[in-house]
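lol ok so funny story. i was supposed to be doing the assay writeup but got distracted and ended up predicting the structure for this chain instead. priorities right. anyway since i did it might as well share w the group, maybe its usefull for someone
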Amino acid sequence: MRCPLLNLFTKCSCCGWVICAFCVQLTIVVIAIAFGGLIAWKPKKVIDIQIALYRPFNWKIGPISMDKEIRNTRIMGLAVLVLGIVSLGYILLK
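and the output, tada:
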């Protein structure tokens, strides 16, 4: 069985100013894993950031039930994290 991490560098065909599709996919997956982990780990902070981003547009948003919003945000973060890990496995083993 071949090690996917050692095979990682042979799959990359970037040269000069041209970035290969493999590196673009890998970058998107790593960003998805990072955001999924952040959302699952600190859902209250993510909700506060969203509220702060809407404030300059003079929009006042807030959840009806903060407990439900935190739970749903954590579930969404875990889903993004799992999909990112599955996608990483698919990319490396492809």
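The mean pLDDT is 86. Helices lie at 4-11, 21-41, 43-54, 66-93.
back to the writeup now i swear
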